[in-house]
Specification:
It is a single chain. By secondary structure, this protein is α/β, with parallel strands linked by helices. Helices cover 46% and strands 14% of the residues. The chain has 11 helices and 10 strands. Strands 9-8-7-6-5-2-1-10 form an 8-stranded parallel sheet.
């Protein structure tokens, strides 16, 4: 059973060598490599360096990951894909960063790069879904050739909606499916986020079965159904029996990737490793019982 844990906070707190070793010692064999997302900043930081300098960082990260006996199961690309300001220069910079993140995935030998859709109205209700779909077609058409070149599959993530489920693009399963099928590419599939579905009012099991073979990777975490809390599984209202049994029904054989980073006190070095191990064991129990 392949299980992974999100890496960006733990590496920020402990550094690479110790952070990755804690993940491995907790029982995980894979990481959800978060740094390609967490290190993005408009016109500063890692993505403002030369491409060679950018890639050099990930070459070093690969050595740390492999040195800990881990593999990168997926990376998370930068977001928001479309700036809420609508500023063209910022949008162009994000498109460049998204393309570069695909090369980062390739460098650490991650098969998947998780991306968000372009949300033309940000977190406000989408006033023109067809225009938003057109914008996303343009964005994905730029990214897919880069993914094909690098041997990476883009995994489009379902977004949370706290209003009507269809207010936010790709929140509802039919929206996510429409976007994936629109691109008709073997390098463009789905990442299913349990917490996002739960806060949007969708049963995780039904969502998984709707995606079927489009589903290639996961973000697993819990919440109380009112906010995207990123808490440990079983500490919220997600129906985990339904979720895991549905994964089994569709023949899912990918990584079970925990994104429950808010359960651990990220500033507390003393207790953080214990919390990571605890979360591994919860995930292991649920998967063995219900898959």
């Amino acid at each position: 059973m392949k299980m992974s844990f999100v890496s960006s906070d733990i590496v920020k707190l402990f550094g690479e060598e110790k952070g990755y070793s804690i993940i491995k010692e907790s029982g995980f064999d894979y990481i959800d490599f978060g740094q390609p997302c967490s290190l993005y900043s408009y016109k500063s930081g890692l993505y403002s360096e030369s491409f060679d300098g950018f890639i050099s960082y990930f070459k070093t990260q690969k050595k740390y990951i492999e040195g800990a006996g881990l593999k990168a199961g997926q990376i998370h690309s930068p977001f928001p894909t479309y700036p809420e300001s609508g500023d063209k220069e910022e949008f162009d910079d994000m498109l460049r960063a998204l393309k570069w993140s695909v090369y980062a995935a390739s460098e650490v030998e991650s098969p998947y790069a998780v991306i968000h859709c372009a949300m033309r109205n940000g977190w406000r209700p989408d006033t023109d879904p067809e225009l938003t779909k057109k914008l996303n077609f343009e964005v994905f058409s730029i990214l897919i050739p880069e993914a094909e070149k690098c041997g990476v599959t883009l995994a489009l993530e379902n977004m949370p909606s706290q209003g009507k489920p269809t207010d936010i693009p790709t929140s509802a399963p039919e929206q996510l499916i429409e976007y994936i099928d629109m691109m008709n590419s073997p390098n463009f599939k789905a990442c299913f986020d349990t917490g996002h579905a739960n806060v949007s009012g969708f049963g995780c099991g039904d969502y998984v079965k709707a995606l079927g073979k489009r589903l290639v990777t996961l973000h697993i975490h819990d919440n109380d159904g009112t906010r995207d809390g990123h808490t440990c599984p079983t500490f919220g209202t997600v129906d985990w029996k339904d979720f895991f049994s549905s994964l089994s029904q569709i023949g899912y054989n990918g990584t079970l990737s925990l994104e429950s980073d808010n359960f651990s006190d990220r500033e507390n070095k003393l207790t953080y490793p214990v919390c990571v191990k605890f979360q591994h064991d919860i995930l292991d129990i649920l998967a063995r019982k219900y898959m």
